[in-house]
Amino acid sequence: MGHEHEHIHSHSANKKTLTLSLIIIGLFMIAEVIGGLLTNSLALLADAGHMFSDAVSLFIALIAFTFSDKAANYGKTYGYKRFEILAAVLNGATLIFISVYIMYEAFERFQHPKQILSSGMLFIALLGLLVNILVAGIMQRGSDIKNNLNLRAAYQHVLSDMFGSLGAVIASLLIMFFGWTWADPAASVIVALLVLRSGYLVTKSSIHVLMEGTPTNVEIDKVIENILETDGIRSIHDFHVWTITSGLNALTCHAVVDKEMNVSESEIILHQLEEKLKRLNIHHLAIQLETPAHPHDDSLLCCTEN
User: Fold this and answer.
1) What is the β-pairing status of strands 284-290 and 248-257?
2) Tens of pLDDT, residues 233-260
């Protein structure tokens, strides 16, 4: 009950943090678009484009939290918790697309430089940097970034945008003091590379979850060791560990026990395993107990056939 209460409290805090961050990012994004057009700065427009992706990322994260609250049903026995992972994939793909577009625009600017109002660019870039620092701080203090893939995706957006604003500040100073107009598209390329890296990492992590890969915070060897050292268990097979959604890892396996046992004895073993594996980041457990007489494959992992 305590774990459930903690989860609900964390969920509520995450939604409040995302809502506040979305409002701040959304308002400044509009200001940065206007500033980029007035100053003719690609670096600012690139940063505004990245801020737009931040806003989309935060909005999708909010929708994901709303959907994940929906109860399970016969059609979706795990509920809608996986929507959060789908949202993270979309966030990562958005970052990759934006990075490619920014690099294309930067290439055009290198060939055809444009006059830039460096003082206005500097003011807006500095303001953007402060806004990103503020939002990153809000997200870090008010949400569960470490254990939530979708929040981590949104946070990566904001961090990348922070570096983008810093790049725009440096570019505006170089233009202001040295007249180096190429610094504007150069800063845009740096932003694009940062965005591309974030998009790749988020997409890779999300696809790993969708492919039901082993959770990164689960040490398989320790999990197997803890199961096998439990009194009464001789061996295990059909072993699977995967992530349902952020902060919810599941395990299923078949366990061969020493002898035929009654329901009370089997419940004692299962309760012991639940307590032990909870400490190893396994939150949902389903173990089928079998006697040695039950036909089974001796291999640990299940070999399924189409």
Assistant:
1) parallel
2) 988 988 999 988 777 899 999 998 877 7
CB 88 within 8 A of CB 150: yes
Q: With a threshold of 0.85, does the pTM exceed it?
A: no
Residue from 118, 125, 133 nearest 191 by CA: 125
Is residue 125 classed exposed, middle or buried when 0-12, 13-18 and 19+ CB atoms within 10 A define those classes? Answer: buried
